[in-house]
Design goal:
The protein is α/β, with parallel strands linked by helices and 345 residues long. Helix content is 13%, strand content 32%.
């Protein structure tokens, strides 16, 4: 059995991890847990905070092979993990990647590791450390996840209507998706549209891009990859390098770039989010783990919004804004760059 444990990611990836284990964060097409299950060919349990354990069927028992949920899988890494023997620990630059076997949830982890053999992993690894890593790594993960899909060349493109303009060879539209009078350009990355998604007429998409079941691009939407629409998300206007975890709406005009939107969020008409400072300097954002602002080393960083947060029409988000869970936002001026959970107004 495999168990994906939150570790320090539960704090550093807030506000998104207030309401989900790290393993349930979506980056690329799949969640972290779905990626690992596809690579391992086996079910993965999660280990997370007590208040999330029941909902997500968490595993607090000892004995499974533990993998840090902040680590994104690849074939070489999976091979190394499967070779781990009892009382062996796989690390990367001092960070735990995997452990065989995981102690029970209430054990003293540092004491438990006494006597473990530490093996250094010397290949490249992608980590989710801060929320901005989700949109920063989304392009790489979209391409990797596209290769994990069960796509047969003989079926590729058969569901794309003749009234669409298709550029490139990496467009896959599943049977049951609705795509009409759109421009789909996969020369910059693959495009995947799942059954049940709808791309309305006039939409222009540059890959890499994924639209999962129930998601909608409204009439005339402009999408720059790498962008992911989680299940039942709806977008309009202009979107650039964004990840919608699912069940959220940005249904009208307005710009959103280099952003991560949680579940059950709603952005009012003409909401805009800045993703670039006027002086082009690195963007500093609020960090829950640092309990203060940190330098992201990024020139482009938009909005991070926790689950169930909403904003009114004409809302303006400043560069690198962090919004917690369950906030209800409105007003005619730029909002603060850090908005705690359950804020009003």
């Amino acid at each position: 059995m495999y168990t994906l444990f939150d570790g320090t990611g539960h704090v550093s990836l807030k506000p998104l991890t207030y309401t989900r284990p790290v393993a349930e964060i979506r980056v690329g097409i799949f969640s972290v847990r779905e990626k690992w299950e596809k690579y391992l060919g086996d079910e993965c349990k999660v280990r997370t905070k007590d208040y999330l354990t029941e909902k997500y069927n968490g595993n607090d028992m000892a004995g499974s092979l533990g993998i840090a949920a902040t680590v994104l899988p690849n074939s070489k890494l999976v091979h190394a993990i499967k070779k781990l023997e009892i009382n062996q620990l796989l690390i990367k630059d001092g960070t735990v990647i995997a452990i065989n076997e995981l102690p029970e949830a209430n054990a003293d982890f540092d004491s438990y590791l006494d006597g473990f053999e530490m093996l250094e992993y010397d290949d490249d690894i992608s980590f989710l450390i801060n929320p901005c890593d989700i949109f920063s790594l989304n392009g790489k993960e979209l391409e990797a996840d596209f290769n994990l899909l069960d796509i047969h060349d003989s079926k590729k493109n058969l569901a794309i209507g003749q009234n669409n303009q298709v550029i490139g060879d990496d467009v896959f539209v599943e049977e049951g998706a609705i795509v009409n009078a759109c421009i789909l350009n996969s020369s910059t990355g693959p495009i995947y549209i799942e059954s049940g998604a709808e791309i309305m007429e006039g939409t222009i998409i540059r890959g890499p891009f994924a639209a999962l079941k129930g998601s909608v691009c409204k009439v005339g939407t402009k999408v720059y990859g790498p962008t992911t629409l989680g299940p039942c998300s709806k977008i309009g206007g202009e979107v650039n390098n964004c990840v919608f975890q699912g069940y959220s709406n940005k249904g009208h005009d307005g710009f959103l770039g280099n952003s991560v939107i949680g579940e059950w969020c709603n952005l009012g008409a003409d909401t805009n989010s800045s993703n670039l400072k006027n002086n082009y300097s690195n963007i500093r954002v609020w960090s829950y783990s640092a309990e203060g602002t940190i330098d992201t080393n990024l020139q482009f960083h938009g909005l991070i919004m926790g689950d169930h947060s909403k904003c009114g029409i004409n809302t303006m988000f400043n560069t690198g804004t962090i919004v917690g869970v369950g906030a209800n936002l409105f007003g005619g001026n730029f909002l603060p760059k850090f908005i705690p959970s359950f804020s009003w107004g």
